[in-house]
Write a structure and sequence with these properties.
Layout (H helix, E strand, L loop, with lengths): L1 E7 L2 E7 L8 E5 L6 H9 L5 E6 L1 E2 L2 E2 L5 H6 L2 E4 L11 H11 L7 H11 L17 H15 L3 E5 L7 H17 L3 E6 L3 H5 L4 E6 L2 E6 L1 H10 L28
Parallel strand pairs: 3-9, 3-10, 7-8, 8-9
Antiparallel strand pairs: 1-2, 1-4, 5-6, 10-11
Helix pairs in contact: 4-5, 5-6
The protein binds adenosine-5'-diphosphate (ADP) and magnesium ion.
Length: about 260
C-alpha cells in the first residue's frame, strides 16, 4: 500500500501509510490503543462506514481500493476480525463452500477440511456445527477465524489482534498454523497486535510501529523486543509512556500505579 489515507467520513484516522508485504512474509503492525490499527484493517477490507481518501492498495498487482468488500475477498484478501461477529442462521461449512465457489475454486469436501483444520489448532469439532461464531467464547472465535483462514487459503491475511482472548497454548497453535500457511501457500500476513507476546510465537520478518495513523518506525523482530521494554512513549504516543503491559501484568502498585 502506498500513501494510504482514510478513516470514517469526515475524520481522517490513517494519515499516509506506506507498506509492502511480499508473499510468504509476516509483517507486524504494533501500536497503542487508538492508533488506527483496526481502522487500517477495515479500510483495507473495505468495511462499510470506512473509506480510503487517498493512496493505493494492490494485491498481486490488482488495485483493491474502490472494489466492494466481496471483490477484495475474491482477489485473495482475508480479514480476521478483532471482534468476530456472530451470524445467526449461517452454517460455517456452507458459507465457506459458497466463498470458495464464488472465488472460482473447487469447494471440495469442506466439512472434512474444517474438521481437519479444527483439530490442528485444538478447536472443538462440535463447535463447527453452530451457526457462525454464535455463542462462542472470545478465544473460540479467534480460533474459528483461523480455521476459516486455513480452509479458504487466501493470498493475504490481515489478522487484527488474533492473540486477544487466546491462552498461551491456543496462541502457539494459531501462530504455528499461520506460519505454516506462509510456507505452504505463500500467504502474506499483516499481523496487528498490541502485545509483543504474539510475536514470540508468530515471528515477523518486519515490525512496524503505528502511532496516530502513521508508521513512525520500522525494523526487525528486535523492535518488538524494544517496545516490550520501553513501550510506545518514545514514539510520541500520548499517555503510553509506561506501557505496554504483558497480558495479566499490572503496573507496580496495582492498576492505579505506585
Ligand atoms: P486501534 O485498533 O489501534 O486501537 P482504531 O483503529 O480502532 O484503533 O481507532 C483509531 C481511532 O479512530 C480511535 O480514536 C477511534 O475512536 C476512532 N474510530 C475508529 N473507528 C471509528 C468509528 N467507526 N467511529 C468513530 N470513531 C472511530
Ligand atoms: Mg483495534
Amino acid at each position: 500500500m502506498q500513501g494510504l489515507r482514510g478513516g470514517i467520513p469526515g475524520h481522517e484516522i490513517l494519515r499516509g501509510i506506506d507498506l509492502e508485504v511480499l508473499s510468504g512474509e509476516v509483517h507486524a503492525v504494533m501500536g497503542p490503543n487508538g492508533s488506527g490499527k483496526s481502522t487500517l484493517a477495515h479500510v483495507l477490507m473495505g468495511r462499510p462506514g470506512y473509506e480510503a481518501s487517498a493512496g493505493s492498495v494492490t494485491l498481486d498487482g490488482e488495485e483493491l481500493l474502490g472494489l466492494p468488500t466481496w471483490r477484495r475477498a475474491q482477489a485473495g484478501l482475508f480479514l480476521a476480525w478483532q471482534y468476530p461477529v456472530e451470524v445467526p442462521g449461517v452454517d460455517p461449512a456452507e458459507a465457506l463452500a459458497e466463498a470458495l465457489v464464488a472465488g472460482g475454486r473447487e469447494a471440495g469436501d469442506v466439512p472434512a477440511r474444517l474438521s481437519a483444520e479444527a483439530s490442528r489448532i485444538g478447536f472443538e469439532e462440535r463447535l463447527l456445527t453452530r451457526p457462525l461464531n454464535v455463542d462462542l467464547s472470545g478465544g473460540e472465535k479467534k480460533r474459528n477465524e483461523t480455521v476459516q483462514l486455513s480452509v479458504l487459503q487466501p493470498r493475504f491475511a490481515v489478522l487484527d489482534e488474533i492473540d486477544s482472548g487466546l491462552d498461551i497454548d491456543a496462541l502457539r497453535a494459531v501462530a504455528r498454523r499461520v506460519e505454516e500457511a506462509t510456507v505452504d501457500s505463500d500467504l502474506g500476513v499483516l499481523a496487528i497486535t498490541h502485545y509483543p507476546r504474539l510475536l514470540k510465537e508468530l515471528r515477523p520478518d518486519v515490525v512496524h510501529v503505528l502511532v496516530d495513523g502513521r508508521i513512525v518506525a520500522t525494523g526487525g523482530p528486535a523492535l518488538a523486543e524494544e517496545l516490550e521494554r520501553s513501550g510506545y512513549g518514545a514514539y510520541g504516543a500520548p499517555g503510553a509512556s509506561e506501557g505496554p503491559w504483558e497480558v495479566g501484568a499490572l503496573p507496580e502498585g496495582g492498576p492505579l500505579g505506585p
